[in-house]
Write a structure and sequence with these properties.
Radius of gyration: 22 Å
Structural class: mainly alpha
Distance between the termini: 57 Å
Helix content: 40-55%
Largest sheet: none
Shape: flat
Oligomer: single chain
Number of strands: 0
Length: about 70
Amino acid sequence: MNNSRRLNLVLLGLLLLGGTGCTTVKPWERGTLADWTMRPDRDPLALASDEHIYFSREATTGGRGVGGGGCGCN
């Protein structure tokens, strides 16, 4: 592969990487994004269940102030 083709591929990759995930949120769309249904902590029972599953699987917590290690001796 010659240098100009390699440079073109790198530039194309950087262009694709830089163009992804960029969006502008309009002021009237911010209300939708701030809605109660968009919050990940809106269901305390599901949140506790998810935390328990992650703690059991990963032997770690999400940093919510729960002490203990992976041995189950909180």
